[in-house]
Write a structure and sequence with these properties.
This protein is α+β, with helices and mostly antiparallel strands and 189 residues long. The chain has 2 domains: 74 residues, no CATH class; 99 residues, 2-Layer Sandwich (Alpha-Beta Plaits). It is 26% helix and 12% strand. Strands 1-2 form a two-stranded antiparallel sheet. Strands 3-6 form a two-stranded antiparallel sheet. Strands 4-5 form a two-stranded antiparallel sheet. The longest helix is centred in the middle third of the chain and has 21 residues. The radius of gyration is 18 Å and the shape is globular. It binds iron/sulfur cluster (2 copies).
Length: 189
């Protein structure tokens, strides 16, 4: 039996590891389910909970996240794009991504316009921006924080980019855990 997929998705305000989601989504898509189908949420949750624990009090958050992932998948199929990239697994250990102070956000969308990596997205009623793909954030980038007129976005200090993330089993090939780009200002900090 083939091993089930593993991925991490934002559920509520936490990145959460999930099993078998890619297969569930692909199967529903093959059956012709559209992202706006009223039955989609129930079917996603039903299949998902066969392999993953869904806290009873968080069912709405799970359903919202699963629907978002489904829409993303369908859009990627339609446009021929690959969807999520996650180029380097070590990014999961590198805390470089924006933190959003939701009460300050007025939903102007300026941060969304400048992010090249699709890190940010809307909440369900599109009144607030959320951090949905933290691992896609580009090391040393601060565009969204600089674009926010209300100071609702905070980036970590540059020093976190110097923290090595290599394990003894995976020796470092560089002296820095950053992207290594010539544009990385952390190297100059
Ligand atoms: S720092 Fe850059 S890559 Fe990261 S979320 Fe903001 S605009 Fe996107
Ligand atoms: S730029 Fe700031 S206020 Fe505007 S949507 Fe983004 S976080 Fe909210």
């Amino acid at each position: 039996m083939a091993e089930a997929s593993y991925s991490q998705i934002m559920i509520g305000r936490a990145m959460t590891g999930v099993i078998g989601l890619q297969e569930i989504i692909a199967a529903l898509h093959q059956d012709g389910m559209t992202p706006d189908d009223p039955a989609l949420g129930v079917q996603l949750l039903s299949e998902f909970s066969k392999r993953n624990y869904v806290p009873p009090t968080a069912r709405a958050a799970y359903e919202e996240a699963l629907r978002r992932e489904y829409r993303r998948y369908v859009e990627a199929q339609r446009t021929g794009q690959t969807g999520r990239l996650w180029r380097d697994a070590r990014k999961e250990h590198r805390p470089w991504f924006p933190t959003l102070f939701e009460p300050k956000c007025d939903g102007c969308g300026k941060c969304l316009d400048v992010c090249p990596n699709g890190v940010l997205g809307w909440n369900a009623d599109e009144t607030k921006v959320l951090v949905l793909e933290p691992y896609e954030c580009a090391p040393a980038c601060q565009r969204c924080a600089q674009a926010c007129p209300l100071g609702a976005i905070v980036m970590p200090p540059m020093a976190v980019l110097h923290v090595r993330t290599d394990s003894p089993e995976r020796p470092s090939t560089s002296d820095c855990a950053t992207c290594g780009s010539k544009d990385c200002v952390a190297r100059k900090a």
